[in-house]
Design brief:
Number of strands: 4
Number of helices: 10
Strand order of the largest sheet: 1-2
Radius of gyration: 19 Å
Distance between the termini: 22 Å
Largest sheet: 2 strands, antiparallel
Length: 231
């Protein structure tokens, strides 16, 4: 069975974001194929996609390497997110379905409950699912793709400090859902813009690879999951 290139692409991207493939390091097709248990063909296709996304660069005499973004490029990502997430929320207020609202409300309830109990271990994941669902509710494939790519790159370049008051952050999430449910696009845009501005202050630029940051590098054996990706 031929492993689809998008599965290989996801696996390599996840490892770049996690710091397994450090910035500036070479990405040879042979080693990547062995690591992910695939042939070189989907690896080659994945590297082309990742280069288009900005995670990989091709260097003379070195071939494919993990990109090394500048501080300005990292700052630009946060500025782009500050512009696009409010737009996505405004579109969601116009185009969301009842299924989107059900998921968003469920995430807000769960997030607020965890915040009240002080069990904040998975609040970041819940927040990620919230913003992913909000983007999906925009009904714009181009905007969804851009926001998804921004989330990946921001997670790669920044560490995020936990909010001093997670309950306040989830109250903002709740206000966004309320505006989206009412179809109030301007309110959804304004509340999301404020929420994004506040969360931006918690981002701290990462320096170096995982070894320099004292993080644990994952096991180098990483077989590609051949199951259909979750949507």
């Amino acid at each position: 069975m031929r492993i689809p290139a998008h599965s290989v692409c996801t696996a390599i991207r996840d490892d770049i974001v996690a710091g397994v493939h450090e910035r500036g390091s070479r990405l040879t097709e042979e080693l990547l194929a062995r690591r992910y248990g695939v042939s070189r063909v989907p690896v080659r296709e994945a590297l082309r996609t990742l280069e288009a996304e900005g995670f990989v660069v091709t260097r003379r005499h070195a071939g494919a390497c993990v990109a090394e973004p500048t501080e300005q490029e990292a700052a630009d990502l946060l500025e782009m997110r500050a512009l696009l997430e409010p737009l996505g929320a405004a579109r969601a207020a116009q185009r969301r379905t009842e299924a989107h609202l059900k998921v968003l409300r469920g995430l807000v309830r769960l997030g607020q409950e965890r915040a009240r109990r002080g069990t904040s271990d998975d609040l970041r994941s819940l927040g990620g699912w919230f913003h992913e669902t909000l983007a999906q509710a925009s009904g714009s494939p181009a905007l969804i793709a851009m926001l998804t790519q921004l989330r990946h790159k921001i997670a790669w370049m920044y560490a995020v400090e936990a909010p001093a008051d997670p309950g306040e952050s989830w109250a903002e999430h709740g206000a966004i859902v309320d505006a989206v449910a009412r179809g109030d696009s301007e309110r959804a845009r304004a509340v999301t813009a404020l929420h994004t501005e506040r969360s931006t202050a918690a981002h701290r630029l990462r320096l170096g690879g995982p070894r320099e940051r004292g993080e644990r590098v994952r096991n180098p054996q990483h077989a590609v999951n051949t199951a259909s990706p979750r949507h």
